Amino acid sequence: MAVVILMTDRRPSLSPQHTRTRRRSPGLAASLLGGVVAAGLGLGSFAVLVMMLWISSPYPDSGPGGALHVAAALWLLAHGAELVRTDTLSGAPAPVGLTPMLLLLLPVWLLHRAARDAVDGAYEGDGPAPLVAGRTAWAGVVLGYLAVGGVVAAYTARGMLRPDWEWTAVCLPLVAVVAAGAGVWTAYGWPRRPVDSVLHRLGPLGRAFLGTQTRERLGVSARAATAGAAVLVGGGALLVAASLVWHGPAARVAFAQLTEGWSGRFAVLLLCLALVPNAAVWGAAYALGPGFALSAGHVTGPLYSDPTPLLPPFPLLAAVPGAGAGTPLNWAAGVVPVVAGVTVGWFTARAAARAGGGGEPWSLGRTAGYTGVAAVLCGAWLALLAGLAGGPLGVDALARFGPVWWQVAVATVAWVAVVGVPVALAVRWWGCRGAVGEGEANKSVTGKQVAKAGEKSVTGKQVAKVGEVAPPATKAPDAKTDADTEPDAEQNPASPDPTSDLDLPDLTEDTYGTDDAYDTQDAYDNYEPYEPLPLSPPPPWPYDDAAREARWAALREVSAKAEEMAPPDPPQRTVPSGRTESPERMELTESTQLTEPTERMEPPERTERMEPTEPTERLQPTKSEDPPKP
């Protein structure tokens, strides 16, 4: 006897925990892979560039291994981490913390794109791709990126440019977290819920920014601050370009002294291009007043510049103004913060006036207050940029290069507030002036029309009581117009005047003046006033008891009419006196009497009831006279 084992074709179902893990794993795995790919692309870009320069250089130095170590160190430096140089002339390690800001854009862009693509997910179906959970995509990209970053930092620790572990542990995760978070937020369409949740956690101070109007006004201040910061940085770049043109011979000499080969000069040119954003921020700090430091204790500003120590030849350093007191040419750099303040004030005043949106203008205090908020935000922007643009290049005299971030922030707030607030108030007044003029003109025209309408139509006998519905009047034998049927106080003196108890203003005189050229009431002089019509009651709510009963009553009425329309039992025909029938009607009646009903039409028991009785009196039809033919 064969033994039969019962088996199912389907696999046994997994536990809920395994099912959830299985559903989450593709999104998390793809996010991890995206973070690894983003880090690999950034590292590969630096490696390709450094290896190309090493191959074209006539001085191979330490071989391809040293070039790869330099590429890995530059990748860490692009995230803001400081490096430590060990091959110095004195033998003491020297920090290198001045990050070229243009290099920072590459890892930020790669992280942002990786997080955005991780949220979209890989989907091969026909419909729209389902979004991966934001936390899953963000965590996967960050963990994958930091895994590669840890390996790169460990590899770089054995080279001549070694990472500073404290700065690496702070800067690398910070850049990854912020850039990946921005990518996830972009993929979800910039939702407000994460921002609102952060504001809720800040307590009462954060909840004050949750209102719709407050959020809109803060958005106006943020846009104005961003525009002001862009003007400051752009103005700083113009100052640097003008200084390079002014000190052109010295810059060319410095460029030629650094290296002799074409590969070396190309490397210097690339380094100068990477430092252009830093130089623009330095120029903005110079225009604001605090200036920047070229070494410890040596500050260069528009009012006074300290003598600079012996600096290495570099094209950008050759454009630094000379030592000594400032000249009117140096003071002209103050135009840049003035233009930035005007820009901030103009952006804020546009929203405050609401000239094109039709909204209510802001008050003077609110306009000045949010302009001050924009000044503070602009100072925060410049403080962040100043902190990124500076850093040490060595020890002792080279330990401090670039602007001081808090000094730049204070100077920015002062300049923008002092210039921006008056500009915002002036532009707001100018924008509201046209709106106020239009409003006053509309009010005058409306008042004039109301006065004329009251003078010609509002009289004692034409005003009806408000809310009183006139009873339906019987129609007279002869037709009358509305003016004839209107009650007259002179013809019926006993009737009380309906407006005797009303305190009506004297509208006989036009207090707004007359305008004979344009009178909107002249076209309506031939029309008589009419009685106010009663207002129709509002429609009932379709779900209350009264409406339900009304619907049922309507259904009953329709069904009753349908029953009435059914063929009833024919009653006994009686011809009333004085009524005549036509011969055709009589023949139809006789034919109906002679016709026997069929079984299909009427049941047998009702045949006797259906037989009509002979009328008691039959009148002879009268022959009607035909109308005369024309």
Top keywords for this entry?
membrane, 630 residues, transmembrane helix, two-stranded antiparallel sheet, mainly alpha, 7 strands, DUF6350, Integral membrane protein, three-stranded antiparallel sheet
Strand content: under 5%
- Report the principal-axis shape: flat
The biggest sheet amounts to: 3 strands, antiparallel
Helix content: 55-70%
Query: What integer is the average pLDDT?
Result: 74
The number of distinct β-strands equals 7
Tally of separate helices = 19
Please provide the ordered H/E string of secondary-structure elements. HHEEHHEHHHHHHHEEEEHHHHHHHH
Low-confidence stretches: 4-25, 437-505, 507-524, 587-604, 606-625
The spatial strand order of the largest sheet comes to: 2-1-3
Terminal residue distance? 117 Å
- Structural classification: mainly alpha
**Radius of gyration from the CA trace?**
47 Å
Describe the structure.
- With 630 residues, the chain is mainly alpha-helical.
- Among the domains are: 168 residues, no CATH class; 249 residues, no CATH class.
- The chain is built from 19 helices and seven strands.
- The strands form three sheets. A three-stranded antiparallel β-sheet has the order 2-1-3.
- Strand 1 and strand 2 form a beta hairpin.
- Helix 1 crosses helix 4, helix 11 packs across helix 14 and helix 13 packs parallel to helix 15.
- The protein is flat, with a radius of gyration of 47 Å.
- The N and C termini lie far apart (117 Å).
Write a brief structural summary.
By secondary structure, the protein is mainly α. Among the domains are: 168 residues, no CATH class; 249 residues, no CATH class. Helices cover 55% and strands 3% of the residues.
